[in-house]
């Protein structure tokens, strides 16, 4: 939620236009909560969630490792004080020259999900470690992931054996249970599959070392979510069930769970109107929409908490939309949003829990609207 520090910053600085304000104190608290919940697991912050240099510097100073998706993100981490031995190139879709560049920078942990990607890593980064991502169903996630990444567990066995034969270190298995995952037991199903891959490769004389538990740890939006400690207990229990006393090295990749609740967006009501004289539903247009930072409202998957200066007044349903000349720039219509009937044009609102996937998951200047400004305090 918007902390007192965020509210004070907005009140004192009066930044023009929509902007995100992130409170580093919350990021620090979240990192320490993950470390307490899973003390034997290494934390690899998912840089894509929010790559602000201040966030990367803080996490590097706390001892975090980093999950990166591109050479640019690798370079951002190194510039912020993170070392290459704490970086994973976690994107399974990489140009061979980018693999070579990452290897030259010292990165030696790469994600794969097919033999073709293994062959690229073997040519461009010989002798490095690879882990294979397997597909999961994503049941229980508010933002389920598609079949774009990962392969079947049966294929993962062949992929990792091929890596071993090519001189790479077949290091382990990864999965992602879906973003904003509220089911603490989701990791149990995935770990059962991972353990099967470990056993099959052991029978072929290849000893895997690591399970990448992925991300999926949620931020509280409109609904309550389990505490981080509940995830830690559930994950450790699942590890014991499926791996017994031979629990492998584990890593997690929190992104949304690390920074989502640390930020709030200041926005302004640009227009309030109706589509006919007897239309019971108002349309409330903001100066920020899908293309300016709220892309995760796609299919109304993420429903952000919204605070207005008129909270406490009578509310009624409205359609919430952005300012661009694109009919897709509607945030909530299928399930209208309840906002005060007294809301007026020019009112400033706070969109809370918006620290993740807002400054980067957006267009650059669509319709001439500037990219979302960001402040880290």
Automatic annotation (TrEMBL):
<feature type="active site" description="Proton donor">
    <location>
        <position position="325"/>
    </location>
</feature>
<dbReference type="InterPro" id="IPR022643">
    <property type="entry name" value="De-COase2_C"/>
</dbReference>
<feature type="domain" description="Orn/DAP/Arg decarboxylase 2 N-terminal">
    <location>
        <begin position="26"/>
        <end position="259"/>
    </location>
</feature>
<dbReference type="Pfam" id="PF02784">
    <property type="entry name" value="Orn_Arg_deC_N"/>
</dbReference>
<dbReference type="GO" id="GO:0033387">
    <property type="term" value="P:putrescine biosynthetic process from arginine, via ornithine"/>
</dbReference>
<dbReference type="Pfam" id="PF00278">
    <property type="entry name" value="Orn_DAP_Arg_deC"/>
</dbReference>
<comment type="similarity">
    <text>Belongs to the Orn/Lys/Arg decarboxylase class-II family.</text>
</comment>
<keyword id="KW-0456">Lyase</keyword>
<feature type="modified residue" description="N6-(pyridoxal phosphate)lysine">
    <location>
        <position position="48"/>
    </location>
</feature>
<dbReference type="InterPro" id="IPR029066">
    <property type="entry name" value="PLP-binding_barrel"/>
</dbReference>
<feature type="domain" description="Orn/DAP/Arg decarboxylase 2 C-terminal">
    <location>
        <begin position="261"/>
        <end position="355"/>
    </location>
</feature>
<dbReference type="InterPro" id="IPR002433">
    <property type="entry name" value="Orn_de-COase"/>
</dbReference>
<keyword id="KW-0663">Pyridoxal phosphate</keyword>
<comment type="pathway">
    <text>Amine and polyamine biosynthesis; putrescine biosynthesis via L-ornithine pathway; putrescine from L-ornithine: step 1/1.</text>
</comment>
<dbReference type="GO" id="GO:0005737">
    <property type="term" value="C:cytoplasm"/>
</dbReference>
<dbReference type="InterPro" id="IPR009006">
    <property type="entry name" value="Ala_racemase/Decarboxylase_C"/>
</dbReference>
<dbReference type="InterPro" id="IPR000183">
    <property type="entry name" value="Orn/DAP/Arg_de-COase"/>
</dbReference>
<protein>
    <recommendedName>
        <fullName>ornithine decarboxylase</fullName>
        <ecNumber>4.1.1.17</ecNumber>
    </recommendedName>
</protein>
<dbReference type="InterPro" id="IPR022653">
    <property type="entry name" value="De-COase2_pyr-phos_BS"/>
</dbReference>
<dbReference type="InterPro" id="IPR022657">
    <property type="entry name" value="De-COase2_CS"/>
</dbReference>
<dbReference type="GO" id="GO:0004586">
    <property type="term" value="F:ornithine decarboxylase activity"/>
</dbReference>
<dbReference type="InterPro" id="IPR022644">
    <property type="entry name" value="De-COase2_N"/>
</dbReference>
């Amino acid at each position: 939620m918007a902390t007192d520090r965020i509210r004070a910053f907005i009140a004192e600085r009066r930044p023009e236009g929509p902007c995100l304000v992130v409170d580093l104190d919350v990021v620090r608290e979240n990192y320490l909560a993950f470390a307490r919940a899973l003390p034997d697991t290494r934390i690899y912050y998912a840089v894509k969630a929010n790559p602000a240099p201040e966030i990367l510097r803080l996490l590097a100073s706390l001892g975090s490792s980093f999950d990166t998706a591109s050479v640019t993100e690798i370079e951002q981490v190194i510039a912020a004080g993170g070392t290459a031995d704490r970086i994973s190139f976690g994107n399974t879709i990489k140009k061979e020259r980018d693999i070579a560049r990452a290897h030259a920078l010292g990165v030696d942990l790469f994600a794969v999900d097919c033999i073709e990607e293994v062959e690229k890593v073997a040519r461009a980064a010989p002798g490095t470690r690879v882990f294979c991502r397997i597909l999961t169903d994503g049941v229980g996630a508010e933002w389920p992931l598609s079949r774009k990444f990962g392969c079947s567990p049966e294929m993962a066995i062949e992929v990792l054996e091929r890596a071993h034969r090519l001189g790479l270190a077949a290091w382990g298995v990864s999965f992602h249970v879906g973003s904003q995952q509220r089911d603490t037991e989701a990791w149990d199903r995935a770990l059962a599959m991972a353990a099967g891959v470990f056993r099959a490769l052991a029978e072929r004389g290849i000893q895997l070392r690591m399970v990448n538990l992925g991300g999926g740890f949620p931020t509280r939006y409109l609904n309550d979510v389990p505490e981080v400690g509940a995830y830690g207990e559930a994950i450790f229990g699942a590890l014991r069930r499926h791996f017994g006393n031979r629990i492998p090295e584990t890593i997690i990749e929190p992104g949304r769970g690390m920074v989502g609740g640390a930020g709030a967006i200041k926005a302004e009501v640009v227009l309030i109107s109706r589509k006919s004289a007897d239309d019971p539903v108002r349309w409330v247009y903001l100066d920020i929409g899908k293309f300016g930072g709220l892309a995760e409202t796609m299919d109304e998957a993420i429903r952000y908490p919204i605070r207005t200066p008129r909270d406490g007044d009578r509310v009624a349903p409205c359609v919430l939309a952005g300012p661009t000349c694109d009919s897709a720039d509607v945030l909530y219509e299928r399930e209208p949003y309840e906002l005060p009937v007294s809301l007026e044009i020019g009112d400033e609102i706070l969109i809370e829990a918006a620290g993740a996937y807002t400054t980067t998951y957006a267009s650059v200047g669509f319709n001439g609207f500037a990219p979302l400004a960001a402040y880290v305090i």
